[in-house]
Write a structure and sequence with these properties.
The chain is α+β, with helices and mostly antiparallel strands and 243 residues long. The chain contains 7 helices and 4 strands. Helices cover 36% and strands 12% of the residues. The chain binds flavin mononucleotide (FMN). The site of flavin mononucleotide has 12 residues, from strand 3.
Length: 243
C-alpha cells in the first residue's frame, strides 16, 4: 500500500503487506492530538469502498466529524449518556444479546478483565472508574477524526454484512497509512442524538462509530493485546486433503 504521512509522527511504523495490516490492527483507545488530513480520510474511504457488497449495492454511508463538529457531537453524546438509565434506548438493530451465552460470555468476561483490571488497573467493583473509561468512547478516545457508519435499511441483515466488510476494509486501509482505529458500537446507544446532529435520514441504519487517528504509543490503554481462538476451534474442513 502507498501512504501519505505528511503529518504522521516520525515514529509511526507503516505496514506494507495485507498480512501486516491484519496482524497489526487492534482497537486503539488513546490517540495523539495529531490531525489527519481530509485528503487522507478521503483516500481511505475510497479504498474501503472497494469492498464487496451484495450485487455491488454499496449500501454504506459515512459521516466524518472533526474539529468543532466533533466537539459538539461529543458534548451531545456525553449529555445523553449522563441522562441515561439504560431504559428506553432506541436501537436500529440489536448490537448485543439480552444475555450472553457460552462461549461468548466467557470471552467477553476475559476481554473486560484484560481491559479494566490488567490494562487500566481498575477493580471490578469500581463502577465509577469503569464509567470514566466508558465515557471516553463519546470523545472517540481523543482521536482527531470520528466516523459514523450508516447503511441503507433495505434489506437490514444484508446491509449489515456489507457495512461490516466496509468497516474492516477501512480499518485495514488505515494501517497502510500508519493510522489506527477503534470500532465503537457504544455510540449507537444514542442513535437519536447521532441522527439529529448529523441529519441522518430514517432510511439509513446507524451501524457503528469509528475513531481514527495516530495511536499514542506511550498510553497504557494501547498495550492491551486480545487473543484469538485457534483455527481448529471454528473451521470445519469437508473433503479430502488431496482433492
Ligand atoms: C462492531 C464492534 C463494536 C465495538 N464497539 C466498541 C466500543 O463501543 N468501545 C470499545 O472500546 N471497543 C469496541 N469494539 C472493539 C472490540 O472490543 C475489539 O474489537 C475486540 O475486543 C477485539 O480486540 P481488537 O480489536 O484489539 O483486536 C467494537 C468492535 C466491533 C467489531
Amino acid at each position: 500500500m502507498t501512504h501519505s504521512s505528511a503529518t504522521a509522527p516520525a515514529s509511526v511504523p507503516v505496514p506494507v503487506t495485507v498480512e501486516d495490516a491484519l496482524r497489526s490492527r487492534r482497537s486503539v483507545r488513546a490517540f495523539l492530538p495529531v490531525p489527519v488530513p481530509r485528503s487522507t480520510v478521503e483516500r481511505l474511504l475510497a479504498l474501503a469502498a472497494r469492498s464487496a457488497s451484495n450485487s455491488n449495492s454499496q449500501p454504506w454511508q459515512v459521516h466524518v466529524v472533526t474539529g468543532a463538529a466533533k466537539r459538539a457531537l461529543s458534548a451531545a453524546l456525553l449529555r445523553a449518556h449522563a441522562d441515561d438509565d439504560g431504559r428506553g434506548r432506541d436501537y436500529d438493530y440489536q448490537p448485543e444479546p439480552d444475555g450472553w451465552r457460552e462461549p461468548y460470555r466467557s470471552r467477553r468476561r476475559r476481554f473486560g478483565e484484560s481491559l479494566y483490571r490488567d490494562t487500566l488497573g481498575i477493580r471490578a467493583d469500581d463502577t465509577g472508574a469503569r464509567l470514566d473509561h466508558h465515557r471516553r468512547n463519546y470523545d472517540f478516545f481523543g482521536a482527531p477524526v470520528g466516523i459514523v457508519l450508516t447503511a441503507g435499511r433495505h434489506p437490514l441483515q444484508g446491509a449489515l454484512v456489507d457495512a461490516g466488510l466496509f468497516l474492516q476494509a477501512l480499518m485495514l486501509a488505515a494501517r497502510g497509512d500508519g493510522l489506527d482505529t477503534c470500532p465503537q458500537a457504544s455510540l449507537i446507544d444514542f442513535s437519536p442524538v447521532l441522527r439529529r446532529r448529523l441529519l441522518i435520514p430514517d432510511d439509513q441504519l446507524i451501524v457503528c462509530g469509528l475513531a481514527l487517528g495516530y495511536a499514542d504509543p506511550a498510553h497504557r490503554l494501547n498495550r492491551q493485546c486480545t487473543p484469538r481462538e485457534p483455527v481448529g476451534s471454528f473451521a470445519t474442513f469437508h473433503g479430502d486433503e488431496a482433492e
